[in-house]
Design a protein that fits this description.
There is one protein chain. 29% of the residues are buried. By secondary structure, this protein is α/β, with parallel strands linked by helices. The chain has a 6-stranded parallel beta sheet, sandwiched between helices. A 5-stranded mixed beta sheet has the order 1-3-4-5-2. Helix 2 links the parallel strand 6 and strand 7. Helix 2 packs parallel to helix 3 and helix 2 packs parallel to helix 6. It has 2 domains: 66 residues, Ribosomal Protein L25, Chain P; 159 residues, SPOUT methyltransferase, trefoil knot domain (Alpha/beta knot, 3-Layer(aba) Sandwich). It is built from 6 helices and 11 strands.
Length: 238
Amino acid sequence: MKTIRLYQNTPFSEGIKAELNKENSHHLNKVLRFPVGKNITLFNGDGFNYIALVESVKKTTQLKIISKNPNDIESKLDLTLAQGIAKGEKMDFLIQKAVELGATRIIPMKLERCVVKLKSDKVQKKIDHWQKIANHACEQSGRSVIVSISKPTTIDELLEESGHNGIVLHHRATKDLNQIKACLKATILIGPEGGLSENEISVVEDSGYRSVLLGKRILRTETASLAAIANMQLLWGS
């Protein structure tokens, strides 16, 4: 039987009893039909794996935390993806794969050419949806931290944050990633389906973002984002 990993935002300690929340309990018992007396792995975002013995699955799922082990699979590169909001299921796919590839934060960007225009009363519901996708991607990929999904952000709001070490990806750039100085922290800005506007590129370049070309071919936004993360991890991370 494959190892079952579940995320739950609960403090855990070795030797204590614990209880799964309703969603995890349903998934473990009704979907997976997991047997009593076997171990699962829990994580709560603190960087550790908690091995837990399933003791009871009656009204609630009761566990005993057997051990606490550090999980050292995180990349040494602290990488933020500032991604123009893509339409349909592309954004879901982007978030899932960016987490699998080791991104540490994802900022959905409200850019000039974004087709998706989120209504104010729907924003939190969308953030919660994206965060759930990120959490499940952490479960699947073996990570024991939680990748934060920020609220949708404008260029001006992004530039108000300090310490980004920014890189902007667009097809008119002349430098590639090999020409960028190695770093342990970076933010990469990538446009939506229609790309970044001339004004957006100028604004972020004037603020210190370095323009990078990923290759000679023009890539779709979901291809560009994941290819960029993979290349940056290969060069500077894990």
